[in-house]
Design a protein that fits this description.
Blueprint (H helix, E strand, L loop, with lengths): L22 H11 L4 H8 L8 H14 L32 H15 L1
């Protein structure tokens, strides 16, 4: 009952062929060719976005997740010293997650404030 699985030496079947590009790289290259940056698009469009632009904003947010990696905290919070009094609240170890719903709520409030 020893060897389970494919015997060594058999040719590869299925899966991605050797040398095939990663699809994420294709997305990066296509956006670079078009000179399209979703963050710039959000900044330029922020004053004019309204509730009807929810799909566009969601798409821009999803594109940024593919193009820009999430950052990790630089340093972990320091360990408390024994017999010390902590005056400050502990800091967050991770940045808060981006909430598209809150972003769209802010857009709606901005739009209502202009009318």
């Amino acid at each position: 009952m020893g060897d389970i699985g494919r015997p060594k030496g058999l040719p590869k079947t299925g899966g991605r062929q050797k040398g095939t590009k990663n699809r994420q790289l294709d997305l990066h290259e296509a956006l670079e060719r078009l000179q399209f940056d979703p963050i710039n698009e959000m900044v330029k469009g922020f004053p004019t976005f309204g509730p009807e632009d929810k799909v566009k904003v969601d798409l821009l947010i999803r594109l940024t997740e593919f193009l820009y990696p999430r950052r990790k905290p630089a340093d972990p919070p320091p360990e408390p010293v024994a017999n010390s009094v902590s005056i400050l609240k502990p800091t967050q170890t991770e940045p808060p997650a981006f909430d598209p719903g809150a972003f769209l709520d802010a857009l709606e409030a901005n739009e209502k404030g202009r009318n």
